[in-house]
């Protein structure tokens, strides 16, 4: 059972460590989506929680409003270590209230989520100075989603969310991330979402030591045919897979006339443009 609590904070704003963004806003501590591969699991040691990652959620409470002068025309990401549209956002509307403030700040807002709840705030997205909404997919297979991302929205719901956002004139993106070697059918993701997407991003599975065993056990139990390839990449440290895949994605996206940005760990970024 998820432990739900509130936590007071002095500010919701933090300097972004992600290239291309000035600030990040994480409205919650933790995330109930329980994705087995979540790189943000390292945040648990800073949270004061003994529960496993995915089994607690703290709703941030901040009395200090965002400052328009500080955020004017800056690039702000929602969110980097939580999902701003987790199921509890429907009740607390913390993300919605933050976006209302960002409208007045005239910030350039980038939203990353695995939740179809994001369509609720289309009215606010239209008021932002600049906005892009990205839905994240590791697979277009619902069976994978249920096993690896049990708290996230179903695949079909996320595709419908992209359709709704695109139809409302909101700039949309799909992050094929994390990409599971030998498992993620990235071409299928493009096929299913292409009519509703302005650009694609691709990122590799970041196998942090803290959850490497958990991920490898998942692969062994659900996708045993992919285990040898995963072993070559993450145990033998063979990076040639990502180099070859980056070229394949670049060539395919150029052929399909879709924009694609590729970020595979320590490798240089690639672009289809």
What does this structure look like?
The chain has 273 residues and is an alpha/beta fold. It contains 11 helices and 12 strands. The chain has helices at residues 44-47, 68-71, 89-92, 94-105, 122-125, 142-148, 155-167, 186-193, 212-222, 227-234, 240-256, and strands spanning 3-8, 13-15, 23-25, 28-29, 56-61, 75-78, 108-113, 130-137, 171-179, 199-204, 260-263, 270-271. The strands form 2 sheets. It has a 9-stranded mixed beta sheet with strand order 2-3-6-7-8-9-10-11-12, with helices on one face. A hairpin with a 7-residue loop joins strand 2 (13-15) and strand 3 (23-25). The protein is globular and about 50 Å long.
Question: Which descriptors would you attach to this protein?
Answer:
disordered C terminus; 12 strands; 273 residues; three-stranded mixed β-sheet
Number of E-type strands? 12
**Cα end-to-end separation:** 46 Å
The whole-angstrom Rg is 18 Å
Oligomer: single chain
Structure annotation, total helices:
11
Uncertain spans, ≥5 residues at pLDDT below 50? 266-272
The proportion of strand residues reads 15-25%
Lateral strand order in the biggest sheet: 2-3-6-7-8-9-10-11-12
How confident is the prediction overall: mean pLDDT?
92
Strand-and-helix sequence, N→C?
Answer: EEEEHEHEHHEHEHHEHEHHHEE
State the secondary-structure class. Answer: alpha/beta
Sheet having the most strands: 9 strands, mixed
What general outline do the C-alpha atoms trace? globular
How would you briefly describe this protein structure?
This protein has eleven helices and twelve strands.
